[in-house]
Predict the structure.
Amino acid sequence: MDFIRLASQYKEELLERVVPFWLTHSPDKEFGGYFTCLDREGKVFDTDKFIWLQARQVWLFSMLYNKVEKRPEWLDCAVRGGEFLKKYGHDGQLNWYFSLTREGKPLVQPYNIFSYTFAAMAFGQLSLAAGNEEYARIAAGTFERILQKQHNPKGIYNKAVPGARSLKSFALPMILCNLALEVEHIIGDGMVTETAENVIYEVLEVFYRPEYGLIVENVHADGSFSDSFDGRLLNPGHAIEAMWFIMDLGVRLNRPDIIEKAVEIALATLKYGWDEQYGGIFYFMDVKGYPPQQLEWDQKLWWVHVETLITLLKGYHLTGSEECLRWFEKVHDYTWSHFRDEEFPEWFGYLNRQGEVLLNLKGGKWKGCFHVPRGLYQCWQTLEKIKQQ
């Protein structure tokens, strides 16, 4: 495999096509923040602003400024979003709304914990890029809010009947794996280690079910398996993405054992989730092989494939697994031939099972300036490290 050529391919796609797309079409120069609902060519088709997509874009441009090059336009873009979020994104007590109007009026209450997690990520990176202590305080205060809410993330907005079937979700410990490292410069080594040990246990000992060799999306509050639609649910993309977060924690904590375990789980999930008939990775599955309740279960989504590429490259880099490399080649070929738009920049997000484009948007309520550019950056950087080996 030509790692030099691949590194250039990922770097050029990031810096010459994807980042310029968002920098050109996304900033709202009148009210601040970003438009994320962009059609195939980059034209705005809806002006609502979703907090976690706003925050993800702040993070992305701050990260590029911090780690790639100190380009003023990248910092300006990040600050534009950060100032909008600081002013309108929360209720004054760092409870982050889900969505706002273009002007910044709240539309949906702060029920979604991921508005908080991505706000913490955003202001953590932005504080480094801008050298601004206020941004660091927002990141620290938001991280504290997340820890307060982690056992009941939705709080008063939880629609489940108390005590009926109390489930806890994989999504929060998964994201904390990554978030702890993102804000380490703010929360300190001790808090990172404590948080990391807790989430590693949750991911690898609670949500990972050895009887299936897979990670489920929900378990009972006591950590036991729930034989229900929600309890049997597997989101292959979530599980595989979490494994590169675990690998990063394994490097940070010098724990080769959890790196090996993460590679094992990622490969098992990929084998289970791969569509042998049409190629690509299914969106949702049932760990017992029953029909999933999600009607979109067989769609192929951009982020699932991009995150898988990151995980496979990190797995190969850190363990030398030839199986990771073989799968990387397979997923790389599928991803670049199906999601990349040859005519206009940025990538498609949603394909049907056969691999045909379902929606030709480049951004919307759930897809923004995050998975594609972050994935291209992570793959580029890991390929550079592999080249150096």
Observations:
- The mean pLDDT is 97.
- The chain has two domains: 1-25+167-389, 27-159.
